[in-house]
Design brief:
The protein contains eleven helices and five strands; from the N terminus they run H-H-H-H-H-H-H-H-H-E-H-E-E-H-E-E. With about 375 residues, the protein is an alpha+beta fold. It folds into two domains: about 10-170, no CATH class; about 255-380, 2-Layer Sandwich (Heat Shock Protein 90), CATH 3.30.565.10. A five-stranded mixed β-sheet has the order 1-2-3-5-4, with helices on one face. Helix 7 packs antiparallel against helix 8 (about 215-245).
Amino acid sequence: MSTVDGPRLPPHAGDAATVLLAAGGGALTLLIAQASPHARAGTMLVVDVALGVAACVALLLRRRWPLGLALALALPAALSAAAAIAGLAGVFAAAARRRAGLVLPVVAVHVVASAVSITLWPSAEDSEREQVLWTAAFYATVLAWGMLARARRQLVGSLRERAERAEAEQRLLAEQARHAERTRIAREMHDILAHRVSLVALHAGGLELRPDLPPDEVRRTAGVIRTSARQALEELRDVIGMLREEPAPHAPTPALRDIPQLVEQSRCAGSAVQLRMHVDEPDTAPGSLGRAAYRIVQEALTNVHKHAAGSPATVSLRGGPGEGLQVDVRNPLPRATATALPGAGSGLVGLAERVALAGGTLSHGPSAEGQFVVAARLRWAR
């Protein structure tokens, strides 16, 4: 990720540049001071240069102890012309790293120390008062510059943190979207394939139990098995295509009008399924409503094939626009608890999630009349 404030110097390079600039500025200031009537000579010149070198090298500590360093540089900056720029650099470093309330007393110490230095070595061109005012103005400028740098650093840090947080949230949303999509595909696979495979198993079980069936009946049952298997393979190919993100010919989205055909498939498999459909304006039903109703009936009939093979079932749908849609599937409780077909037990759980996403409610379980009931109520806006 690119930084918000652009490329930055490495810490060592920044330290070296700061020390060199302070040393160069101090040398220039010393040359200007040597041109005045109060030029340093002999021991004073050596002390001035030594203080300047020490002050410049001390700038390497400005990141760790900015306030302490700026305060310690007040006296060398006042006594040594070579250390003047290093003192300003220390004040700038403190203002750029600490709040103004802590830096202002340090600046005041620098101004007082400079005033003492001006009294000891007055200038012939300007009065002492003018020199003190110019010094105070210069330190105020450096302080403002450092505060501006601190505010910019805080803004850049805030923007960088916000950008990192936004990227993290985007990655989380993308992961949640992928998880939701895979969950949806898994639910579609369960709803579609479980129904097809249960029909194939039901027909195959009929052939196994009735070896004396007429040839025409055997041929018809084998045709139904072949058709169901082919449809299961086609739908499986569609689902795998979605997982691979490859284009695949998708089957039409199921709707309310497809429920009679779904019931007829169960009847062809040998199940006695009765359909009671009293729905006003079924062709105007929203796609999500029709798909949810279809999956409810499909899952309920699949469970009948698995756990109560041969039991009669009743599918009831009633409602209309503004009234909502009620879906009810009932079958007698099986006498035996064993089942010929395995199940993960997640079909009704996934169905409940689907109904909840559609803004409806789902209930399922044994009733007082000895029936297993799957009942759902779906919203249908006018």
